[in-house]
Design brief:
Helix 11 packs antiparallel against helix 12. The protein is elongated, with a radius of gyration of 31 Å. It has 2 domains: 183 residues, no CATH class; 183 residues, no CATH class. The protein has 386 residues and is an alpha+beta fold. The protein contains 14 helices and 11 strands.
């Protein structure tokens, strides 16, 4: 019986743990993408490389699209915390207001003159400043492309909620010129964010923009970036899900064997019950009720174990995603009701399914045959090839 409980708990724990790791990594990326994208509806990006900053001049002057903002983004390591990857976002504070609130949500009044006028200044998200024990006026060392750079913290950005805390867990904001210098992108932009209304007038602006953009650049919806990344990692997440279901199959195999062994042990008892008038249906339901008890205990243990397992797996999953797809830092486990429901459902259903064959075996033979100890040997010999 204990082996059956362990089998169910093992399968459910792996399913829940891997599902938590998958959903947490995806949620962390979406939060991060939404934070740096802000309210932008469209983005101008390079078809292959970056965007020349003259395109931004074209948009503002010739096309008259005022709700546009240049962005340079990249990633850096922090020598003070070698395991931490920081996202650096270069922005133009004067064009940021319609898109993001980085320059407004600081713990003290931001000196825009210092932020824009002095090279090497940075806004640090509060989770980063707390983790690195830094505050306004301190120097932050970052490692980019093998070179170390020193940045002066001019303000600390305060998240406006728990989701913002997660999204800004590894975010630095610098002036556009500082970002270009850090990433050696003089005269280049990572993208240009736009606000285009979903109206007929907005559609006209969109078509005009497409026709005026130079070769090598394109305009796309902001949501397409997240959708593309989701497609990239879909096969990876599917493989992990298949692995978790394989663990559940192993658990079902353990349940099947232990239930079969239990039925064989109680074969004579089942025969006597049948001889006393207990029906096949009653014996079948008795075995299923026992299995249901095992399923409930094993599933509960599996859910609890899966929550702990998920905390460990999320670091491994996020590291693999970092190495193969994109940079993501997962600081919190995303426990959804669907994950728990799936774990409970799989644990109970898998246990009952694995119990049905031995339960049918226990009730299929007539009582007179079940009571004969030689019946098992006779049936076994009949299956041998010789």
């Amino acid at each position: 019986m204990a082996l059956s409980v362990i089998g169910v708990a093992l399968g459910v724990a792996v399913v829940v743990g891997i599902d938590l790791a998958n959903s947490s990594a995806s949620s962390a990326f979406r939060l991060s993408a939404e934070t740096v994208t802000g309210k932008a509806t469209h983005q101008i990006v390079g078809s292959v490389d970056n965007v020349d900053e003259t395109v931004y001049t074209l948009i503002r002057t010739k096309l008259g699209i005022r709700e546009s903002a240049p962005v340079v983004e990249g990633f850096a390591r922090v020598p003070q915390d070698p395991g931490r990857t920081i996202q650096i976002l270069g922005v133009d504070p004067l064009a940021e207001a319609p898109f993001r609130t980085f320059t407004g949500g600081t713990e003290s009044d931001l000196d825009l003159g210092a932020f824009m006028g002095r090279s090497g200044t940075v806004l640090v998200a509060e989770p980063v400043s707390r983790a690195l024990n830094l505050t306004t006026g301190d120097e932050l060392q970052v490692l980019i492309g093998g070179f170390e750079h020193s940045l002066e913290i001019v303000a600390v950005m305060i998240p406006d909620g728990e989701l913002s805390v997660q999204a800004m867990a590894n975010l630095l904001v610098v002036d556009i010129a500082t970002a270009q210098a850090l990433f050696s992108l003089e005269g280049q932009l990572s993208r240009i964010d736009l606000l285009i209304a979903d109206t007929q007038e907005g559609a006209v602006v969109f078509e005009k923009l497409k026709s005026e953009l130079p070769a090598g650049t394109e305009v796309r919806r902001s949501s397409s970036r997240t959708e593309t990344v989701e497609q990239m990692t879909r096969a990876f997440r599917l493989n992990l899900t298949a692995l978790s279901l394989l663990a559940l199959v192993v658990g079902m195999f353990l349940i099947y064997n232990t239930t079969t062994f239990s039925v064989v042990q109680r074969r004579s008892l089942i025969g006597r019950l049948r001889a006393l008038g207990v029906t096949k249906r009653e014996i079948f339901s008795m075995i299923l009720r026992e299995a249901l008890g095992v399923a409930i205990v094993g599933t509960l243990l599996g859910i609890v174990s899966g929550l702990f397992l998920g905390r460990g797996l999320v670091q491994l999953v996020s590291q693999t995603i970092n190495d193969l797809y994109y940079v993501v830092q997962v600081r919190a486990i995303d426990v959804s009701v669907w994950t728990l429901v799936k774990g409970v459902s799989l644990g109970i259903v898998a246990t009952l399914v694995a119990t049905i064959p031995p339960a049918r075996e226990a009730t299929s033979a007539p009582a007179s045959i079940v009571l004969r100890r030689s019946e098992e040997e006779t049936r076994l010999h009949s299956k041998l090839p010789v």
